[in-house]
Design goal:
alpha+beta; Alpha-Beta Plaits; 2 domains; 10-stranded mixed beta sheet; 5 helices; 10 strands
Length: 240
């Protein structure tokens, strides 16, 4: 039987989602627990790989079990054995051809920036930027991200296809915290962190609000944006 599950985790406690030899990973912890329950090897497939330090509220995974167990007992069996920094939120049965990665139609990521004073107690969970930003200019710059584009200039590493669609970029401020949420089809390696780095340039006044359009057009990092730290990034939702 194949199952789909929603998983939350504290990325500061892992070396990323992907299984790594001799290093603690979310995928590795899940596979260890599921293999114990199933009594034979279980492989977990995720909707995507989050890097070391990146958090998730709704990462999606699928896995196959060859034992018969009802979902409430399966959920309890998993969570009672899992590392305290990872939690399975819910489980449902799916068809045998379902794939957590390839069947995904939308993802939502959020990045949190502290514009106020440095706070060591939240350093693993937000970007302690500690400077004021012109959010109005950041919003203007973000408009150029909407729609279908090649995001090569904002993607780290080589791949065959850099095309994706971003349907929404949302900004919310709560006190000194700025929450930037990206909704789209696909997000590639470091893409969200690079997009935030570019938006920060607009917020600092070091890049015109049309700068993102220029970089998308010529696929060059002409304004020298920086990749922001992983600790402020959250995978918020995966839809099918």
């Amino acid at each position: 039987m194949r199952y789909l599950a929603s998983v939350s985790y504290d990325g500061s406690k892992f070396y990323g989602f992907q299984r790594l030899k001799n290093k603690k990973s979310v995928q590795g912890e899940l596979e260890k627990v599921l293999t114990t329950i199933n009594k034979t090897m279980v492989l977990v497939k995720g909707a995507g790989r989050t890097d070391r330090g990146v958090h998730a509220l709704d990462q999606k995974i699928h896995f196959d079990l060859n034992i018969k167990i009802d979902i409430p007992h399966l959920l309890l069996a998993i969570n009672s054995r899992l590392d305290s920094a990872v939690r399975v939120n819910y489980i449902e049965e799916v068809s045998s051809d379902f794939h957590a990665r390839f069947d995904c139609i939308q993802k939502k990521y959020q990045y949190i920036i502290n514009m106020g004073e440095y706070d060591l107690f939240i350093d693993d969970y937000v970007y302690n930027y500690n400077k004021k930003l012109n959010i109005k200019n950041m919003k203007k710059a973000s408009k150029y991200l909407l729609g279908a584009h090649s995001f090569k200039v904002f993607t780290s590493g080589e791949r065959e296809n850099y095309n994706s669609i971003i349907s929404k970029v949302d900004f919310k401020r709560r006190g000194s915290m700025l929450y930037i949420t990206f909704t789209g089809v696909s997000f590639y390696r470091y893409m969200v962190r690079n997009l935030v780095g570019a938006l920060l340039l607009a917020g600092e006044g070091r890049m015109p609000t049309t700068g993102i359009e220029e970089m998308l057009s010529n696929s060059r990092n002409i304004y020298n944006y920086m990749t922001v730290p992983a600790n402020g990034l959250y995978l918020m939702e995966v839809k099918y």
